[in-house]
Task: structure prediction
Amino acid sequence: QLPKQVQIKEVGPCDGLQNEKTFIKTSDKVEFINRLSETGLDYIEITSFVHPKWIPQLADAADVLKEIKRKHSITYAALVPNIRGLERAIEAEVDEVSVFMSASEGHNKANINKSVAETFPILKEVVNEALAAGKTVRGYISTVIACPYDGYTQPKQVVRVAEKLFEMGISEVSLGDTIGVGVPTQVDALLSEMLKSFKAEQLAMHFHDTRGTALANVVTSLSRGITKFDSAVGGLGGCPYAKGAAGNVATEDLLYLLHEMGIETGIALEGIQQTALFIEGILGRTLSSKQLAIVRKE
Ligand code: HMG
Ligand code: MG
Result:
């Protein structure tokens, strides 16, 4: 039986914009997030406190947090790679901290310059300090299906990383098909393994749509009882340290699918579409979502 209600976590302002070549003005990012805040979303990942040399696009993280109009009903989250990032995030009064690492060595090294083993103590310190500061912490595991450097990922590798993150005290783990290679049989195999150790409520799925398989993977995840999905308006996004990684599954395409299946999200499709058109105008290029192609013709 499929879930009746699903939570969508919008990652467009962070995972989406981090990959853009031209710097988006802070005021445009703020307007983008303010518009997202009016759509019924209750969770927006708005930026990251990583090293500005690595991701110059999000170097204005603190200003974005300071300038957005916050709603009490919305959790405004940000990615944090280490203690330095956490200090900046707390200073900017982020609501929730997201730590991140990969299941595979190759991508972990390319993305955060550390081996998987070296990453655990760093994240442990971040989670400890974040919890002490009264923040909730979400964990991301990237390359859960395959890695651009190391090939296929074994589901047991993902379970092992998730166990370590939950031991640290994260409240939920988001499983990232970072390069969008996964197909439903692989997602099913991964979830089958994960659900031996964790409850469905502890898991979120984060699909990139590089090969057009993201929505199929969502349906497979729904049938396994997953009720949390990450997506980005317009299908923005891609990991700068995973060559060829296309955007996240588009929020409006995901909404269309879920709503037509009778699954509630509390989010207005129309508002999301208009916000996608807004950011498309700022970026000055056509975004890839299917719903937008229809809306543009109307
Ligand atoms: P590093 O160079 O190894 O860092 O980078 P370090 O710890 O050796 O520090 C070097 C210098 O950087 C020091 O300064 C630090 O203070 C400074 P110095 O003492 O030399 O003057 N520094 C910082 N400054 C500001 N903010 C910080 C910070 N950290 C160190 N946070 C590091 C290691 C992790 C920082 C770097 O590799 C990095 O920033 N990587 C970011 C990678 C990234 O943002 N990737 C994209 C997000 S992940 C993603 O998108 C996946 C996801 O979508 C899920 C999926 O799809 O799978 C979430
Ligand atoms: Mg991603």
